[in-house]
Write a structure and sequence with these properties.
The chain has 14 helices and 23 strands. By secondary structure, the protein is α+β, with helices and mostly antiparallel strands. The chain folds into two domains: about 5-20 and about 235-420, UDP-n-acetylglucosamine1-carboxyvinyl-transferase, Chain, CATH 3.65.10.10; about 20-235, UDP-n-acetylglucosamine1-carboxyvinyl-transferase, Chain (Alpha-beta prism), CATH 3.65.10. Helix 10 links the parallel strand 17 and strand 18 (about 325-330). Helix 5 (about 130-140) runs parallel beside helix 6 (about 170-180). It is globular, with a radius of gyration of 21 Å. The relative contact order is 0.16. The chain binds uridine-diphosphate-N-acetylglucosamine. The site of uridine-diphosphate-N-acetylglucosamine (UD1) has 22 residues, from helix 1, helix 5 and helix 6. Uridine-diphosphate-N-acetylglucosamine binds near residues 23, 98, 99, 127 and 311.
């Protein structure tokens, strides 16, 4: 099993480019199956979730040509759904990520039926899919969950109003996908507003769909008979990968320019880093972050976009572990997202978790230890903690990190980190 070895003490310095957004990639890849013709997707991140999604699509008879685009690290996929058939899906593949459940919405739209095992993904809370099911039912589908498989069926999908009881990225995407080929208009209220939802809507509209309001909390999808295909789409930058480098710069007292970002998408992270005393400068498509000594303690509350992203909470916790006082971190999105606390404690972090709140009393320094990444962003937090700590940190569970960070060692070492992968 692979491990990462991080040695702290070196400030991160230099320029690094953020890749394509994971959560956009894993929505646009299945969305390409709604089209009759070929879709070309560019700026895909070179991460395991993208490779696994390509495998999932191939298992449905879809031709997916995935490889380097010649543009830095980015991948390019040519997706030809000509051979698509609604085969049953491999449970092992489906369970390797959360976003495999977008195939429910896609197959329901195209065939009026789908059988997809319950998805996997990071173990960060109970993660029900009741809002997805509510949406499919509103559109006229019969939905049953039997022996761990979600079975949906509809003789015809008809647009309808759907009010989401919780702001859910996954449910918003899945209902958009199902509604694209439905008869009439679906109105999703209390929809998620994340930029990857706008990215998906832009892709769908370019392919011939009629989606309005993405990026607001009311999304209207007027169904069309077919999407012709022939669309070329470029995935937006990954704000969480960018946030990880930004926090890393602040945490190591370095100075990093993160290129290929949309600064607006990172406003909550930038604002919080400035509160800790870091310098953040935005300019066009890059952000500069400079660490200015020991961070000040802050309060952090995760919220749906445009609030502070839950996906950057664990990295922020690593930074605050050495703050000059007590920080309070409240996780309102995923109730179980504090598994990194036990691991950070091994490194000397003084952290107490009570329900959805973590209280972090800053210590002078962390010390290297053997730790385990239990989920994707916990892994990112441990890499940062390792780069801050005195001595060597050995991080296992690297497969979680590889799911969502492209070339993690290469990118971090390019900005001066002492980080190695050992088998
Ligand atoms: C997506 C992201 C993930 C991010 C999260 C919140 C992908 C592939 N993953 O996950 O990185 O952390 O958004 O920004 O895009 N919920 C319900 N019922 C539902 C659906 C969700 O109660 O039917 C709850 C969840 O348990 C959670 C909250 O709503 O507490 C938000 O979940 P959701 O936005 O759906 O997250 P995901 O789409 O799973």
């Amino acid at each position: 099993m692979a491990k990462l070895l991080a040695t702290g003490g070196r400030p991160l310095t230099g320029r690094v480019r953020a890749g394509g957004r994971k959560n956009s990639a894993v929505a646009v890849l299945p969305a390409a199956l709604l089209a009759d013709g070929v879709t070309v997707i560019e700026n895909l991140p070179d991460i395991q979730d993208v490779w696994v999604y390509a495998e999932l699509l191939r298992s449905l008879g879809v031709k997916v040509d995935l490889g380097p685009s010649g543009n830095g690290e980015a991948l390019r996929a040519v997706v030809d759904p000509g051979g698509l058939t609604p085969h049953s899906l491999s449970e092992a593949l489906v369970k390797r990520m959360r976003a495999s459940y977008y195939l429910i919405g896609v197959l329901l739209a195209r065939y009026g039926r789908a059988e997809v095992p319950f998805p996997g993904g990071c173990d960060i809370g109970s993660r029900p899919i009741d809002q997805h099911i509510k949406g499919f039912r509103a559109l006229g589908a019969d939905v049953r969950v039997e022996k761990g498989v979600v079975k949906v069926r509809a003789s015809k999908l008809v647009g309808a109003p759907v009010y989401l009881d919780v702001v859910s990225v996954g449910a918003t995407v899945n209902i958009m996908l199902a509604a694209t080929l439905a008869e009439g208009t679906t109105v999703i209220e209390n929809a998620a507003k994340e930029p990857h939802i706008v990215d998906l809507a832009n892709f769908l509209n370019a392919a011939g769909a009629k989606v309005k309001g993405a990026g607001t909390d009311v999304i209207k999808v007027t169904g069309v008979k077919r999407l012709p295909g022939g669309t070329l789409h470029s995935i937006i930058p990954d704000e969480i990968e960018a946030a990880t480098f930004m926090v890393g710069a602040a945490a190591t007292g370095g100075e990093v320019i993160v290129e290929n970002v949309i600064p607006k998408h990172l406003e909550a992270v930038s604002a919080k880093l400035i509160e800790t005393g870091a310098t953040v400068e935005e300019n066009g498509d890059y952000i500069l972050v400079r660490g200015n000594g020991r961070p000040r303690p802050v309060t952090v509350k995760t919220l749906p976009y445009p609030g502070f992203p839950t996906d950057a909470q664990q990295q922020m916790t690593a930074l605050l572990s050495v703050a000059s006082g007590t920080s309070v971190i409240t996780e309102t999105v995923h109730e179980g997202r504090f598994k990194h606390a036990d691991e950070l404690r091994r490194m000397g972090c003084n952290i107490t978790v009570e329900g959805r709140t973590a209280i972090v009393q800053g210590v002078e320094r962390l010390t290297g230890a053997k730790v385990k990444a239990t989920d994707l962003r916990a892994g990112a937090a441990l890499v940062l903690a390792g780069l801050m700590a005195e001595g060597e940190t050995e991080i296992s569970g690297v497969e979680h990190i590889d799911r969502g960070y492209e070339k993690v060692v290469e990118k971090f070492t390019s900005i001066g980190a002492d980080l190695r992968r050992v088998e």
